Amino acid sequence: MKSSQNLESQDPASKELLRLSIDKLVYGGYGLAKHRNKAVLVRYAAPREIVDAEVLEDRKDYAEALVKNVVLSSNVRREAPCPYYGVCGGCQLQHIEYTAQLESKEEILKETLSRIGKIKDLNLMDSVPSGQEFGYRVRVQFKVKNGRMGFFRWNEREVVDIDHCPIAHPRINDLIEPLKECAKHIRELQEIHVTYSPHEDGFLVKFITPTEIDRGFLVSLKEDYLPQDVFGVGDYSRLRTILNRRYWIGKEYLFFKVGGWTYRVSADSFFQVNHTLWDRFIDAVVSEVSYRKALELYCGVGFFTIPLSEKGNFIEGSDSSGSAIDDAEYNAKVNGRDNVVFVKSDAYRHLKSRGGEVLDLVVLDPPRSGLDGKELDLLVKNKPERIIYVSCNPSTLARDLKVLIKNGYLLEGVKLIDMFPQTYHIESVSYLRVQE
Ligand SMILES: C[S@@+](CC[C@H](N)C(=O)[O-])C[C@H]1O[C@@H](n2cnc3c(N)ncnc32)[C@H](O)[C@@H]1O
Questions:
Q1: CB neighbours of residue 157 within 10 Å
Q2: 26 CB less than 6 Å from ligand 1?
Q3: How many CB atoms sit inside 10 A of residue 173's CB?
Q4: Residue 282 contacts residue 296 (beta carbons within 8 Å)
């Protein structure tokens, strides 16, 4: 995006534009500028450039603005490859060269750990870039509204209709047209979730609606509109963040291969979305590890647990999702691992039940909210020799690292794994060791 052509079209003459000098990128994908001592968060800006921007919202502490015209372009600005960019809110960084995206994420991670975590002299290790900038996602959640299927606009609930998404795996793009045909026939459809296995070349599809889809009708939709490689479809409702299954038709899981490992992943279990980084992500967690007894909290289907089990005597993984634990138990068997046990439990209860045990290693990969205070209390009481903390949210990571460091842990290093190119999301692995 060299100029304002792709940006949301409103008559620039109708609104006052601010001339802003963009200092750097900040979390959320915004460029940061100052205007009359107030911070301005600018959508679609690049570091070190001058833009004319329209103010979208003026709050007490900061304003939010949108680039309307690039006056002096950053040398890392590029034409966004996606025709929907600037309207669809799924990506925030496509207008920036990939290496510069990665550099900005490193700076944001460092700055967040320093500001919230009070961590100075951070050892930011070499980042792991995505294997591909585009075509990396094997799981996509499409929004559906008013006959449109795609993604929300930036910070809005309006759906932008798309025919193609460049960050999705090409095979998921093949499925968009048939899914749109199905969408036409399902009343009040809100979302369609797709998971694709490159290993099986097959899909699972979930339809999310407030009212039940007639089972016979869904069977005929699957047969008439979807290709054979859609192995299973499900009817779901959503209550806030929780999806509830009404019923499922066909095969309920997919198999994924990562290096020498095989994973069964059911429709309701989590799996890492960027297929180009699976092996290097596992390597980042597993490669330098040895232990007698280890615990992995938030273990999902055993993505890390199964490879970790090769590195020590005994490992126990837990997750609150029954479906993930069923998969994990199956995965231990299919990969021939007999020194691993899985427990369906929330992280707090699992830690509590292992309170008095000597643990050499605890691996954690919590959701965006990070650990809660009670979990951190138990963790530092148990004092495992090493903690490996996988995080998808630098702010909650910084908050939790601060507590761990205060309680005697040394942060040996942090590694950024760029799981989500073109978006502002930051995944990282932190390595901690208890100080003598
Ligand atoms: C980011 S995923 C990580 C899963 C796994 N490490 C992987 O890489 O596939 C987070 C996992 O935490 C689980 N989870 C969410 N809240 C939890 C809680 N309070 N206690 C235990 N597990 C929880 C979810 O079911 C999900 O599998």
A1: 8
A2: no
A3: 16
A4: no
Half-sphere exposure of 369 (CA within 13 A, CB side): 6
Active site residue 392: yes
- CA 364–ligand 1 middle distance (angstroms): 9
Q: How many CB atoms lie within 10 A of CB 411?
A: 21
Chain segment 307-366, per-residue pLDDT in tens = 999 999 999 999 999 999 999 999 999 999 999 999 999 999 999 998 778 899 999 999
Decide: helix, strand or coil at residue 258: strand
Which residue segments constitute the domains of the chain, with CATH numbers given?
12-96 (2.40.50.140), 116-130+276-434 (3.40.50.150), 139-254 (2.40.50.1070)
> What is the DSSP pairing of strand 230-239 with strand 202-208?
parallel
345 CA from centroid of ligand 1 (Å): 10
> Angle formed by the axes of helices 373-382 and 394-406, to 10°?
40
| β 17-21/386-391 pair status | unpaired
Q: With a cut of 90, say whether residue 228 has pLDDT above it.
A: yes
Give which of 391, 346, 388 is closest to 368, Cα–Cα. 391
pLDDT in tens, 236-284: 999 999 999 999 999 999 999 999 999 999 999 999 999 999 999 999 9
**20 band by pLDDT with thresholds 50, 70 and 90:** very high
Q: DSSP E strands: which ranges in 267-380?
A: 291-297, 312-319, 340-344, 361-364
Tens digits of per-residue pLDDT, 95-108? 999 999 999 999 99
Whether 324 lines ligand 1, by a CB cut-off of 6 Å, is yes
pTM reported for the whole predicted model: 0.95
CA distance 392 to 105: 12
Q: What is the dihedral of CA 239, 244, 136, 422, to 10 degrees?
A: 0
> Hey, which residues does 145 pair with through a beta bridge?
148
The answer to whether 2 and 79 are in contact (CB under 8 A) is: yes
